[in-house]
Amino acid sequence: MPVVRAHRSGRLQADFFEVEEIKLLHNKDVWNPPVTGAVYGTLLNYQGTLDQMGADLDEPPYQSPPKAPILYMKPVNTLIGHLANVPMPEEEEQLEVGASIGIVIGKKATQVKADQALDYVAGLTIVNDVSIPHESVFRPAVKEKARDGFCPIGPWVMGLDHIPELGQLTIKVYVNGELMQHNHTSNLVRAIPDLLQDVTEFMTLYEDDVLMVGVPENPPLARDGDTVQIEIDPIGVLKNKVTK
Amino acid sequence: MKTAHVAYGGDIHKATYEQDNTIRLDNGQHVAEEDVVWLPPLEPKTCFALGLNYFDHASELDFKAPEEPLVFLKGPNTFIGHLGYTKRPEDVTHMHYECELAVIVGKQAKHVSEKDAYDYVSGYTIANDYAFRDYLENYYRPNLRVKNRDNSTPLGPWFVDAEDISDPMKLQIRTYVNGESVQEGSTQDMIFGVPQLIAYLSGFMTLNKGDVILTGTPKGTVDTKVGDKVITEIEGLGALSNTII
């Protein structure tokens, strides 16, 4: 029986639950983000996102395809838990859903090698990297990505011993119950161990930091009142409603 | 008042600046600047940094001045204190310092007007926001590999109370490499000044106590080598020293 780490009932202290037991509590509880560290995102880490940019990768302003991992941050004001509402800015009509696996770091990781990288991972969680839709990826998208409540995360952290194959995970996004996106970690440009190697080469990740592996191509859009569910088996389901 | 975080005698202390070039620990002891280990004067929460925020630096880099602030974020891995060491990777051909006024947010801020912006500032310090230009790529530029490497953002030495700085938009900025003056400017040449930046950021997200805004650097950024001693200085805030290894 998988055991997961969660912050429930408005409590700062983490608790451990058997996953079948905690699933029963789903809809009648307050959930906090299950992590307290820095949250980093990775851009263009699904092959499909690069394929879609196609020849643009060699044109201005980009000039050439990316070499190193492209990262960004979701600051603390963006973090909300499972079942909390994502506040939609008044002037926006729709928001982009960024479904990502979040790698939760288990111990300080500096210049780790891919074949040892998983020793530094506490587990995986689910992240919804919400953005205001934007085309260009030339300049950092802080205004589009760092709004209050734009990073639902959770419900919990599941240890790697309960997750059989990191390269064989399916990501599904439902908006109001309808399947809107379906992708798979076999499509990652950098698989989880390679990503950890290439990021920690220049940047230390600390215990409880989260590194998102990336958002697949064709992110679904959500409007005011929509319920967004990101399902990554066997990790779980992260559910949030978008509201004005 | 100027306060610092230092380690001395196996303990971490708050320290204050004394006129006679010593510092006073919170246990009353007076010690010399070189005898303590300087930590960043605060652990920044969310840290914003500005690119191309001085007219002269933007033109030096061949960019037209941005119409909206060019903002990026920095993580906790990058900050180190006064008298610290920053590594120059072996494959790098152009690594430069950036002396910047760092603005410390003192209380939660949402939709703050330019007029009220200074009410939300608790203090100032100096940041040296090193850039490693070899790693620049044109995606979310400047990206974290250029601007968020381990130990590459010296911060300090002091947290200087906001009330001690009468006009943060009129401060001289100077950088010295091995004693030679290499960068000179004034905060009055910022494109987006402190009040505009607080109004801009708090206009679309909540700022919290302990957030820090690095406000960009003027012209005069040159390559620095292993062994160079880089001192970034801002009028009224002190001098932040760093050695490249």
Written description of the protein model:
The complex is a heterodimer of chains A (244) and B (245). Chain A is mainly beta and 244 residues long. Helices cover 10% and strands 35% of the residues of chain A. Chain B is built from 3 helices and 19 strands. In chain B, the strands form 3 sheets. In chain B, strands 1, 2, 3, 4, 5, 6, 7, 8, 11, 12, 14 and 17 form a 12-stranded mixed β-sheet that branches. In chain B, strands 9-19-18-15-16 form a 5-stranded mixed β-sheet, with no helix packed on it. In chain B, strands 10-13 form a two-stranded antiparallel sheet. Chain B has helices at residues 55-60, 144-147, 194-204; strands at residues 2-8, 11-17, 22-25, 30-32, 37-39, 47-51, 70-74, 79-80, 84-86, 95-96, 99-105, 121-128, 131-132, 153-161, 172-177, 180-186, 212-214, 229-234, 238-244. Chain B folds into 2 domains: 1-38, FAH (SH3 type barrels, Roll); 40-244, Fumarylacetoacetate hydrolase, domain 2 (Alpha-Beta Complex). Helices cover 9% and strands 39% of the residues of chain B. Chains A and B meet through strand 5 of A and strand 7 of B.
| Spatial extent as radius of gyration of chain B | 17 Å
Architecture of the largest domain in chain B in CATH? Alpha-Beta Complex
| Total domain modules of chain B | 2
N→C terminal distance of chain B: 33 Å
> In CATH, what is the homologous superfamily of the largest domain in chain B?
Fumarylacetoacetase-like, C-terminal domain
Shape call of chain A: globular
Supply the CATH architecture of chain A.
Answer: Alpha-Beta Complex
* CATH third-level topology of the largest domain in chain B: Fumarylacetoacetate hydrolase, domain 2
Helix content of chain A: 10-25%
Radius of gyration of chain A: 17 Å
What does the largest sheet of chain A look like?
Answer: 10 strands, mixed
Low-confidence stretches of chain B: none
- What would the average pLDDT of chain A be, to the nearest integer? 93
Beta-strand segment tally of chain B: 19
Largest interface: A-B, 37 and 31 residues
Our estimate of the beta-strand percent of chain B is 35-45%
